[in-house]
Design brief:
With 263 residues, the chain is of the alpha+beta class. 21% of the residues lie in helices and 23% in strands. The chain has helices at residues 2-20, 142-146, 190-193, 237-262; strands spanning 30-36, 42-47, 56-60, 75-79, 89-93, 102-103, 107-111, 120-126, 131-139, 161-162, 173-176, 199-202. The protein has a 6-stranded antiparallel sheet, with no helix packed on it. α1 (2-20) runs antiparallel to α4 (237-262). The longest helix has 26 residues, at 237-262.
């Protein structure tokens, strides 16, 4: 009986361990929703998948050559504290200052100083010297902003956004203004967010980030939500095995109780 209990305990542990694990972030698992290069630099992004506690994302305005990052610009690292649910917006404020930079969720270190023209911003896993996955990219003016997307796995309009050739090219403040509810999965928002037609922007001399004309900072942190169809989950083989073992324990306990009653 004792060995049977040990097996059940091990199965419960394995189920819990399996449920706690999440897949690594990949291209399109986050998307930028705001970008401000006026005065107190800032940007925001939405998680389009659950992000595990302790996960770190690096942001840089260095250009990508197709094989490596250039140097001379800046880098910022954001880390989750206790995990982040899909649909949550993270706003990074005062990103130009290593002492004042702050995040609405998680912790942040380093700095990213955004230029008002010909600027880009990458989000990635790993390090600038050895990126393991590119997550998304933003450019206010095409190759002049982020350089090349070759070798990143990113595609403009799908999991990256570029305002080159639009009326918003080289504006100073950008914000996503599309829908945040009604889609059946978070990935369905990806193409909407990376479509320049769903953004508002301002540009010009002086500072537009708090002039009372949209878009302004702080950026909206209203979360994205989904309305999935009802799905009956199929039990996993491990779950079925666990249920069988629990039933077996119950039968053994009942048998033991009956045996004691007869005695």
């Amino acid at each position: 009986m004792e060995s049977l209990y040990k097996i059940v305990f091990l199965l419960i542990y394995l189920l819990g361990f399996n449920a706690a694990q999440g897949s690594l972030l990949g291209p399109g698992d986050i998307a930028f929703t705001g970008w401000n290069a006026d005065s107190r630099d800032a940007f925001s992004f939405v998680a389009l998948t659950d992000i595990n506690a302790g996960e770190s994302i690096v942001f840089t305005d260095n250009e990508w050559s197709g094989t490596a990052f250039t140097s001379g610009e800046s880098e910022l690292s954001w880390t989750t504290s206790s995990g982040l649910a899909a649909g949550t917006i993270v706003a990074i404020t005062d990103s130009h200052s290593a002492t004042d930079v702050a995040a609405s969720s998680g912790s942040v270190s380093g700095r990213v100083a955004l230029n008002a023209s010909n600027e880009g911003l990458f989000a990635l896993l790993g390090t600038l010297a050895a990126p393991s996955h590119f997550l998304t990219a933003f450019s206010s003016d095409g190759a002049a902003g982020f350089g090349s997307l070759s070798g990143t796995g990113l595609t403009v309009g799908l999991n990256a956004i570029d305002f080159h050739g639009t009326a918003s090219q080289d504006d100073d403040v950008f914000a996503y203004a599309g829908i945040r509810a009604g889609e059946s999965s978070f990935s369905d928002y990806l193409g909407l967010i990376n479509d320049t037609n769903h953004w508002l922007s301002q540009g010009g001399s002086g500072s537009q980030h708090n002039d009372g004309i949209v878009p302004d900072t702080p950026f909206s942190t209203i979360p994205f939500v989904v309305q999935p169809a009802a799905v009956v989950a199929e039990p996993s083989s491990l779950s079925l095995l666990l249920l069988a073992m629990i039933a077996l324990v119950g039968l053994r306990c009942r048998s033991s109780a009956n045996h004691l009653s007869i005695d």
